[in-house]
Amino acid sequence: xxxxxxxxxxxxxxxxxxxxxxxxxxxxxxxxxxxxxxxxxxxxxxxxxxxxxxxxxxxxxxxxxxxxxxxxxxxxxxxxxxxxxxxxxxxxxxx
Length: 95
Fold this sequence. Notes:
By secondary structure, this protein is mainly β. It has one helix at residues 79-91, and strands spanning 2-4, 18-23, 29-40, 43-50, 59-65, 71-74.
C-alpha cells in the first residue's frame, strides 16, 4: 500500500500532533494521529496510530519525496528494514 500524505506546515513535529487521512488501494480512507517523525540512518519514518482501532498498535511508514517535491508515505516492504526500525523505536535509541 502506498499512501499519499500531502501537508503544508513546518516540520517542528515535536510541538504538535498531526491528524492525517490516508487512502488505501481500495479507496478507503483511514484517519491516523502522527505520533512522531524519526530519522534513523538518514531515512525519515512516520509513526502513525489509527483512530479507528488504536489498540492494534502503531504503523511505521517510510517518508519519501515524490517528483513534485511532496512528501509521501510508503510501506516498509523489506522485513529486515522494518525489524531494524521497530528495534530502534522500542529501545528509544534515536539519533
